[in-house]
Design a protein that fits this description.
With about 190 residues, this protein is mainly alpha-helical. It has a single domain (about 55-190), classed as Tetracycline Repressor, domain 2 (Orthogonal Bundle), CATH 1.10.357. The chain contains ten helices and no strands. The termini are far apart.
């Protein structure tokens, strides 16, 4: 494993345990077995290391979302459920630390860290873009009435972000919730 990759992996693990403020460069150096000075040769600051970690996570998640979104064998409603399932239930394609990192990213206040708030906003924009794309498919397939789309998409997005933050759901809980939430929004002609 390359040194930079090792540093990022160790930072992600420590961030999951202690958050941004609780993760020191000294702890990262100790965990990686690299001298602190060498660590700073790769990353000039904790913030720079965090940004690199976010970029790695963002790339992994974006790749997985694109696979979900591009699955031509699934209907849009299945894709929306799969997106919830992907983030809320331990995903075989993402490590537990990746999921924990995402969860912590959403529950951390970034008021004093403009760059970190911007990264969080970028992540949210990417997920929202994919949600919108799937809702476009729902409209094209007449799953939703156009006049209900914005309201239903807002409700789904709210649900999506809240489920990510609270990762204590089982696959059965999520399926039961989805079976109540989603059919109530489908176009009556589709339900028949």
């Amino acid at each position: 494993m390359k040194t930079k990759t090792l540093i990022i992996a160790c930072f992600i693990e420590l961030f999951c345990e202690s958050g941004f403020e609780g993760t020191s460069m000294a702890a990262v150096a100790e965990k990686t077995g690299i001298k602190k000075a060498s660590l700073y040769a790769h990353f000039t600051s904790k913030k720079a290391l965090f940004i690199a970690a976010c970029e790695v996570i963002l790339a992994q998640v974006t790749s997985e979302i694109l696979l979900l979104q591009g699955d031509k064998t699934k209907n849009p409603d299945e894709k929306l459920f799969d997106l919830l399932h992907f983030f809320c239930i331990k995903n075989a394609n993402l490590s537990p630390h990746t999921i924990q990192f995402i969860n912590r990213l959403f529950v951390t206040e970034w008021d004093n860290h403009l760059e970190l708030r911007e990264l969080e906003a970028e992540y949210l924009a990417i997920t929202q873009q994919h949600i919108t794309s799937i809702f476009d498919e729902c409209l094209a397939m007449n799953y939703l009435l156009p006049e209900n789309r914005d309201r239903i998409q807002s409700a789904y997005t709210f649900l999506f972000h809240n489920l990510i933050v609270h990762d204590a759901y089982s696959a059965t809980d999520l399926r039961n919730f989805w079976e109540i939430f989603w059919p109530g929004h489908l176009n009556n002609e589709v339900r028949l």
